[in-house]
Specification:
Radius of gyration: 18 Å
Order of helices and strands: HEHEHEHEHEHEHEHH
Strand order of the largest sheet: 3-2-1-4-5-6-7
Number of helices: 9
Helix content: 40-55%
Distance between the termini: 47 Å
Length: about 260
C-alpha cells in the first residue's frame, strides 16, 4: 500500500453493521480516514465515536435504496471537500422471496440499492481517481453472482451485474492507477441472513463479517479483480462452473423448495 493511500479516505456504504462495519473498523486500523454512510444514523454515530481520534470519521445518514439517495450522498461528500481514494460499495438487500411474491416496491428497492446506486457512486468517483491516478474500488458481490438462485432470483441477478461490471471496469481501467475488485462472499453472519435457514449451516460453511472484510481488503491491496473468500466457497463456485447450467438450475430449485418447506 502506498503512503499516499494510507493517508487517504475511504467511503463505505452500508457501514452500520455486518461487512460494511467490519470494513470500516479494518480500514481505521490502517490509518485510513472514513466516510461512513447507512440508514441508521444512531449506529453510525456509535461507530464513529469508537473510531475517531487517530483518523477522521465523517458520517452521512443516507438511504441508497431511495432513487435520489446516491445523489444526496454525492452532494454530502462534496460538502466535506474530501477526495475519496477507496470506494467500498457494500450496501445491498437480499430480497429473500420467490420473484412472483415480491412486491413492486420491494423489487424497486433491490434494483435501486444493489445496482443503480452502486453504479452511480462508481461513475461519480472514478473521474477524480483517474485524475489523481490513484484509487481503489471494492464492490461486494456474492457467490450467488455465478449461478441462478431460485427464491433469490432478483438478488443473484443483481450480484451478477455487480460482478460483470467490476470485471469490465477492471480491464477498462488497466494502467490508470485505479483497481477494481469484486468481493464474492458466501453465507456470512450478517443481519441479512439472521433468522433464516442458511444462518444455521455448519460453521465451516458460514463466514464472519470480519473474515470477509479482511479477505476483501487483502484482495483489494493485491489488485485482485475477483476474490471468493473461503476454500469451500471457492471450490463450490469452481465446481458449479463445470456443470451443465440445467443441472445447476435444477439443484437450485430443489434447494429452494426444501428451504421453503423447512
Amino acid at each position: 500500500m502506498s503512503l499516499q493511500l494510507q493517508k487517504g479516505t475511504a467511503l463505505v456504504t452500508g457501514a452500520s453493521s455486518g461487512i460494511g462495519e467490519a470494513f470500516a473498523r479494518l480500514l481505521a486500523t490502517k490509518g485510513i480516514n472514513l466516510i461512513l454512510t447507512a440508514r441508521r444514523q444512531d449506529r453510525l454515530q456509535v461507530i464513529a465515536q469508537e473510531l475517531a481520534g487517530p483518523i477522521r470519521v465523517d458520517i452521512i445518514n443516507c438511504d441508497l435504496s431511495d432513487k435520489a439517495g446516491a445523489e444526496r450522498l454525492i452532494k454530502a461528500v462534496e460538502d466535506l471537500n474530501v477526495a475519496v481514494d477507496i470506494l467500498v460499495n457494500n450496501a445491498a438487500v437480499s430480497g429473500q422471496s420467490p420473484f412472483i411474491d415480491t412486491s413492486e416496491d420491494e423489487l424497486d428497492e433491490l434494483l435501486v440499492l444493489n445496482i443503480r446506486s452502486l453504479t452511480q457512486l462508481t461513475r461519480y468517483f472514478l473521474p477524480g481517481m483517474k485524475k489523481r491516478r490513484l484509487g481503489k474500488i471494492l464492490n461486494v458481490a456474492s457467490v450467488a453472482a455465478f449461478q441462478p438462485v431460485p427464491s433469490l432470483a432478483q438478488y443473484a441477478a443483481s450480484k451478477a451485474y455487480v460482478l460483470s461490471l467490476s470485471e469490465a471496469l477492471a480491464e477498462e481501467l488497466r494502467g490508470t492507477g485505479i483497481t477494481v475488485t469484486a468481493l464474492c462472499p458466501g453465507v456470512t453472519l450478517t443481519q441479512m441472513v439472521s433468522g433464516t435457514t442458511v444462518s444455521k449451516l455448519p460453521e465451516t460453511l458460514v463466514s464472519t463479517p470480519e473474515g470477509v472484510a479482511q479477505a476483501g481488503f487483502d484482495a483489494m491491496m493485491d489488485e485482485q479483480v475477483v476474490h471468493i473468500p473461503g476454500l469451500v466457497n471457492e471450490a463450490a463456485v469452481m465446481l458449479s462452473q463445470l456443470q451443465p447450467r440445467r443441472l445447476i438450475r435444477n439443484l437450485g430449485g430443489l434447494f429452494a423448495r426444501f428451504n421453503k418447506g423447512s
